Here is the input.
Amino acid sequence: MKKKAVHYLNQFFGQVGGEDMADFEPVLHDGALGCSNIFNGVAKNVEITHTLICGDNFVASHPEEAVERCLKFLEGKSFDLFIAGPAFKAGRYGNACGLVGKAVSEKFRVPVISSMNVENPGVELFRKDIYIFKGGARATTMKPDIEAMAAFADKIAADQRLLPAAMEGYFGRGIRHQVFLADLGLEPVPACDRAVDMLLAKLNGAPFETELPIPAQDLVAIAPAIKDIRKAKIALVSSGGIVPSDNPDRIESCSATRWGKYDIAALERFPAGEYKTIHAGYDPAVANQNPNVVVPLDAIRELQKQGVLGEVDDYFYTTVGTGTTQGEAARMGQEISAVLHARGVEGVILTAT
Amino acid sequence: MKLEIGNFVVKEVAFGAKTGFADGVFTVCKEEALAEVLKDEHITEAELHIVKPGDEVRLCPVKEALEIRCRVSGAPGNHPGVTSGLQSAATGRVHTLSGAALLVVGKHWGSFQDGILDMGGPFQRDTIYGFLKNLVLVADTDEEFERHEQQKKNHALRWAGMRLAEFLGNTLAGLTPDSVDTYELDAVNRRCAAAMGLPSVVYVMQPQTQMEAMGYNTLIYGWDGNHMLPTCMHPNEILGGAVISGSFMPCSSKISTYEFQNNPTIKRLMKEHGKTLNFLGVIMSNLNVVMEQKLRSAIMVAQIAKNLGADGAIVAEEGYGNPDVDYIQVIVELENAGVKTVGISNECTGRDGKSQALVALDPKADALVSTGNVSELLRMPPMKTVLGELDALQRDGLSGGWAGCVAADGSCVIENNAMFCSDHPSGYSVKRCFEF
Amino acid sequence: MCNLVNIARTVGSNRIVPTFAVPYPLGNPQASAEEQWKMRMHRVERAVQALQTDVQEQTLFAVER
Here is the structure.
């Protein structure tokens, strides 16, 4: 039995029309259409049973509505994979494949396979969300691009081992897993030899390939300076694990997924015994004797008294930053920021251990 | 300086009436060996087992691995400054069992740094010890002060391992080895023109030394690595036993004493010396917990490398997490000093693979070798036999284990973190991370 | 405010004030209570100054020893 797939196409490849039909609203078509037939001609384990067609401009100008209507068409339909494009270098088409593909992947939990040219802006926007194969710039590469997608779909359908992005031919999704070299059919060269060989290449000016490319730095937009801090409200936030001694929110000692918000309105400083650290990643002795060495409540109160700053938020915000994944840390940061914004906080002193 | 290592290739390890090596068989007199182990009054119980590749045996909690060897000449013992008087480990002759190891396993209690390993089944290949013929010491101690601590010094068991490996190894002293490897390097400014004409390379080691309390860190001639600044060492000192493994690092990142004694990166660099490169030697650095300490060590490593005339360097980090700062900083300082550098370390990308691989990064670290993912989730089927106590994995705070990770049938789910020395930053790793 | 400023840089922080050590960012068990208080006040004051300072790139605000 072949697995079923739905194929997303824009107005042009969905044979509705050209640029004049770019506002075409989504429709679901039974069976294969146009380039879907190429796919069905080469795929062994997968068959496209439906095509979903939508105009590129319609998606660009009504992204939420377009996605919602596309998802609606798919409700109740039985399908195992979702194919989008290839979109070549067409930016709007790439964007539509990515937007719809991402939503389908999240809602229906099926693998989504697309194909775009490296210069298609959709690649950077959606490479972490769906499989995007490295495709050609123009429709002249339709056949090989579809064949690459179909071959990968076949592998997924047959539950075969999936190789790393570079070997399969899609843009890496930022997911790194360990693999034995032998499992990829590669020579099992031990790390010492890989290192010496890489060094010799580097020393001799020969090409070499790092096994851990350094990703572009994830910079944060710079917040403007606080104009008049004597009128501003400042909050204390920490990843050093200081909590009320009974840890009322059961924040985890490592790999934290929870954060806490605790009233300090009546406190001049954190009294030892009533507050402590639950962070498992550092020696807690000094912090437990005096939690203010991790969250400097005593110092910030002194500055408040001196009139250096306006107000200290009535709560402090805390979690544990050891073994905590980036994803969890980012989510907790967003949740804490939302509370800070709502409370009119203008500045934060964030202490990390 | 010249160090000779005489190899006795082991085809089989067996128990018998008299300890000794003959015709590829290393025979161990169990009673005699256990009597040696029990000379330490802190060892309360001890037993020996033999395991070989393919056996359906799981070992846990594994604390240490050592080579069974002896000193024939040069230093007075296998680990000068630790188990014998101090003398340079760089010269003389060592006799060793090749293809075998002594593994030290806790009878009951585990700690953060201890690990698990399988001799057969799908995870045999995760550690080099799955491919060696191993004598296994399973023992308990009276070290009550740390019985329920997550961090254990494991002093009695680690020292028992060193004593036993040497006691058994001493029977090789008067025999003729199957082969002899000679490691010899002239002083850096007294080398032949051919070597001097090749790119000069140093090997920078960052063993785990982050415990402020003594008794847990890597020892160099018996000296705690936390209390030293980077220094220049002869590669023979490492192969000759000057460095012993500590008892602190999450297990997959750990470098056992066996791996110091056999460091494959040093062996490869020695092999290349005079052919493709000029191996200047080892810069022994450390890992620290304060930014200024990290920076100080990194600056000193770069200074030593530059003064030795290094064109290139290989840096190996025993750890992950904040030690990545030390690792990347050393690479950056070396590159800033004009020393082209390659790094060897594992990664910690999370179970989902989506976390940043190292906690510190720098574009200057443009040549990195990856040895595995600390947090890869591994589902291990049951093994017929367990040596030690599998419960330790879920009870005693082993890195990579947690309450409930062991099922009633003996299968378990772990993070790679708990697999004994499996990322082999010493250089053995035949896995790496790839992007998906 | 953190000791491992390289990690702060890697994760993209824009205003960074170094602290004393990982387990006690604003304390020092080797120093007297008075010296610790002085150090803690100084570094928190630097953080407050940092909040009032416009920066164009990731900036480390140096502290006295």
